[in-house]
Specification:
The protein has 482 residues and is α/β, with parallel strands linked by helices. It is 24% helix and 20% strand. It is built from ten helices and 20 strands. Helix 4 crosses helix 5. It is an enzyme of class 3 (hydrolase).
Amino acid sequence: MKNRIKLVLAACCFATTTLSHAQGDIMVENEKTPYDTYIAPKDKEVKENLSKWQDYKFGVLIHMGLYSQLGICESWGLAPEDWVTRNGYDDYDSFASDYRGARFSLNPTNLDSEKWAKMFKNAGAKYLIFTSKHHDGFCMYDSKFTDFKITNPNLPSSKNKNPDVLKNVLDASRKEGLSVGIYFSKPDWTSQDFWWKYYPPKDRNPNYDIKAYPEKWQSFVKYTQNQLDELTSNYGKVDILWLDGGWVRPVSTVKENEGKKGRQNLDINMKLIAETARKKQPGLIVVDRWVPGEYEDYLTPERKVLEKPIPVPWESCVTLGNDWGWVPNDKYKSGTEVIQLLTGIVAKGGNLLLGVGPDGKGDFEPKIQQTLAEVGKWLDINGEAIYATRPIAPYSEGNLYYTSKGEKTVFGIYLPTATEKEIPSQIVIKNNLKGKLNVTLLANKQKLSYKSVNGGISVTIPNSLKAELAKQGGVSIKVSAQ
């Protein structure tokens, strides 16, 4: 095998436009968000869990797999599509062989799930989602339905004390009080019933006509259902089933302008999957990403921040670096960038799911640990303005973002720019609160003076604090009515 497989993936590592100090390299979604197709769950327990989830505000998504050993952009190099460039390779088959061969070297001997869980809890995350299987089909858990898994007795990883990585991580996370979810890719680029060796793969879809070979497709459907059943049966309490690979979907859910003509009907019977899972996991939140209908319990814009609040649950999934998994020499966001990203999302009613990945040994880069620690330190002090809040008009104005709790509390969160030496002496916080107000700086619990202005109050920041507060990721001011 080559020392390292290198890929240049234009669609994986997005080059995005800087739009504001708070969003950095994240795109603001200006197009109409397709929430008009959202169908709210009817199940009482699902609705209750979804409400709890909306209060969490901050979670982490861990990508780990063969790509972690190789240090490349997930499994997309296997996709035989024009946008993929495989540096160092002259032919697809050699790359695919080397990629899948990484299973013989992947061995996360340094993985300490308890240390992971404490790190994410201390970062202020309230939920964790772990990748059980990416599009390549390699399972990070002990699936009974394939040998292409980390627990395969012929692989070095199987000799570890806890070879079932998914179980290890979920168990440790629950012990730290985190809600847990399972990421699962619906397509499987190693399954013979998805990419049949009789034909070469031609894109991300099945490489055969499923109408001509219906029994083969049904075998894949059953395989998928079996894997999802074992994941929701054998891994303790699961709060979220997070399904990726949205092109595997009923053709009836595809609009005419989305390439419906000629598309295969990749229906895996989500109704049966959801019903079966919820018998064992009552209240399970199911996120069939980008497939409009009753199995998309919340929306998941990727690397995007919505322009304004929408009347349905949503979560921005955003990478800490440029990739979802670990790649060498990646550029990671600072603690301040994450704090400001989180604030901008929460002010519009969403959650932030931050994507991070360990290397093949199970270690997280020091910079990742540092950023998470900075975010956690800020949330320890300012979490009251983030967790269990709801959006309130005007949501944001310039550097100031708003959240609220109930009818008597409004938070103004001022986000200093990188060049700001001092924050302003006066910060105007718009609100409709009645009666006597208490105004508190969360950073030190100090009471602040204010005066009424049209539509709100003008809060005075003491001169002695302005320079120090400018160094913070965000300055939270609590306004509450007695």
